[in-house]
Amino acid sequence: MIAQTDQLPGRLFVGLMSGTSVDGIDSALIHSHEGRVRLLASRQHPIAEEVRAEIAALSHPTTNEIERMGRLDRELGGLFADAALALLEKAGTEASAITAIGSHGQTIRHAPPADADDKRGFTVQIGDPNTIAERCGITTVADFRRRDIAAGGEGAPLAPAFHAAVFAHRGRHRAIVNIGGIANITLLKGNTLLAGFDSGPGNTLLDHWYRRHTGLPFDRDGHCSAGGEVIPELLERLLQDPYFQRTGPRSTGKERFHLAWLDERLADFSRARMQDVQATLAELSAASIALAVQLSQGDLDEAFVCGGGAHNGDLMQRLARRLQPARLATTDELGIHPDWVEAAAFAWLAQQRLDGLGGNARVVTGASGLRVLGAVYPP
After folding, report:
1. Quick check: 179 and 309 in contact, CB under 8 A?
2. Which is nearest to 122 in space by CA: 130, 111, 133?
3. Do residues 31 and 40 lie in contact, with contact meaning Cβ atoms separated by under 8 Å?
């Protein structure tokens, strides 16, 4: 329960986020005042298995796509509205107290421009913001990524600008590592945003491999991977993917890193134990994050992890070894629980949109300049 929010100076925003893992809709209520952001309440709203299955199906070419996407867009809009309203009920906060909702939506395709001359790059997020605004009676901001792509950028990741605003610290060389389905990294030198990019698979291959063999959604705390042995030859083969050698602005998704990608590279390892492959995939996530940091700028003082990977003890230990001597912790230490950083970021991006301020960073996405992101849907 949040008491007397009407007496707080500043403004309240809600952020809604569903990521690559599609494990639920993350919602965050933030208080913003004089450049400071405070998380007031958070909640995860469930997504039914049949909806998750339809999202997965539409993430790759399939039949009757337009009608199926249209129906799912409306259904997800309703679910995002439910998530926002349930959060406000939990927080004891009236809809009238909220300045705006920032909704990332659910990505079903991400195909950024191949180069500066590529005019066909695109990204698609669904979860109808008209439905959210209508159901909640709150101004809703959505469609954050496409303006950056129109300006020649990758459209992702967008969280680094938020990380710089709330996590930068004078005199500290920091990385913010978000390990969701795909991992992304923000590099901060003092108050300067040096870079931000997707490093490759975070949890996505780990989850899919574990689910295939156990029927369970994920390897809790990395118990399975901790009980396996890394297969060096397999790890080397996985790391040969050209994406891991890229530098500069870049983004990726499950369109590239999926089970078929893994199966192709497992062709010569048919006798490998399931838990050894799981261990190798955990090492891949840690190794690709560390390699991306090394290729980008090298030395770090500290790294702070957010996203679901922060709860995977085995993955965190592997990453700590790879990033030594930098100190590894979670964003809890910086004031925002690791589960809610991305949802808070889209609440902040809604604020940036309403204030007419930029939400991207050229050094991150490669766009031709700073852009105001998002479309506004009044209540």
Report:
1. yes
2. 111
3. yes
d(CA 252, CA 364): 13
Say which residue the tokens 């349930």 belong to.
86
Query: What string of pLDDT tens digits covers the 379 residues of the chain?
Result: 344 455 668 999 999 999 888 889 999 999 999 989 999 999 999 999 999 999 999 998 999 999 999 999 999 999 999 999 999 999 999 999 999 999 999 999 999 987 767 889 999 999 999 999 999 999 999 999 999 999 999 999 999 999 999 999 999 999 999 999 999 999 999 999 999 999 999 999 999 999 999 999 999 999 999 999 999 999 999 999 999 999 999 999 988 999 999 999 999 999 999 999 999 999 999 999 999 999 987 689 999 999 999 999 999 999 999 999 999 999 999 999 999 999 999 999 999 999 999 999 999 999 999 999 999 999 9
Tokens representing residue 264 in the block: 């192709």
How far is the CA of 305 from the CAs of 72, 97, 179, 207, in angstroms?
Answer: 32, 31, 7, 18
Q: Cα–Cα distance between 367 and 352 in angstroms, integer? A: 17
Tokens of residue 235, six digits: 């790890």
DSSP strand pairing (122-126 vs 36-45) = unpaired
Name 376's Cβ contacts closer than 8 Å, sequence gap at least 6.
100, 139, 140, 141, 353, 354
Bond into 325 cis (ω within 30)? yes
Q: Strand, coil or helix: what is 246?
A: coil
What lies within 8 Å, CB to CB, of 172 at 6+ separation is: 188, 190, 301, 302
Q: 11 phi and psi, to 5 degrees? A: -135, 160
302 has which bridge partners?
174, 327
Task: Using the Cα atoms of residue 294, residue 299, residue 305 and residue 310 in order, give the sign of their dihedral.
Answer: positive
Calpha distance 110→123 (Å, rounded): 4
At 240, the amino acid letter reads: Q
- In our burial notation (b when 16+ CB lie closer than 10 A, e otherwise), range 210-247 reads beeeeeeebbeebebbbebebbeebbebbbebebbebe
pTM of the model: 0.93
